[in-house]
Amino acid sequence: MPDTLEVWLRGPLPEVPPLLQPVAHALLQAREEIEELLTDFPASLLWQRPAGVASVGFHLQHLAGVLDRTFTYARAEALTSTQLAALAAEGHDDTDLPLTPDVLVTAFARQVDRALDQLRTTPEATLPEFRGVGRAGLPSTVIGLLTHAAEHTMRHVGQLSVTARVVRATHPQGH
């Protein structure tokens, strides 16, 4: 029965500080929902934009990217040129890598794993510390960034879910 429960109802995650449990639970829930939703998702539908909404491919790229960027800021680090290039590439399938649903789902899952590793090593005492965001150094805190990462992730999972269902329903053959 525990596997049928949402992640937050399965109990505390080992080694994750108590105040960061909700962030970890949300990220694990997102990973599970995406893996289930996109099992056998046709690659031909990855970049479809019904009614002009963002594609499933964009959401998958963006989910991994947002986690990477917000957790970088939470460590008080600046984005690298690689991260900035990945940001610019979000929503495009014209990269050097073959972007399939499996590749993008795996990339997101790995980013969740990296985020969980960071949560495990984040001392609760640092949560109220200032962190600048972006080139302008907009004001946030460690807890603000980590909470935003979880909230933003779940928002995009919801959007991805609707888009994936719509494109499957309107293209039942995957073309």
Question: Which key terms come to mind for this protein?
Answer:
175 residues; two-stranded antiparallel ribbon; 2 strands; single chain; mainly alpha; DinB family protein; Four Helix Bundle (Hemerythrin (Met), subunit A); DinB/YfiT-like; 54% helix; DinB-like
Structural description of this entry:
The chain is mainly alpha-helical. It has 5 helices and 2 strands, in the order H-H-H-H-E-E-H. The chain has a two-stranded antiparallel ribbon. A hairpin with a 4-residue loop joins strand 1 and strand 2. Helix 1 (21-37) packs antiparallel against helix 4 (101-120) and helix 2 packs antiparallel against helix 5 (142-170). The longest helix is centred in the C-terminal third of the chain and has 29 residues, at 142-170. 30% of the residues are buried. InterPro entries: DinB-like (IPR024775), DinB/YfiT-like (IPR034660).
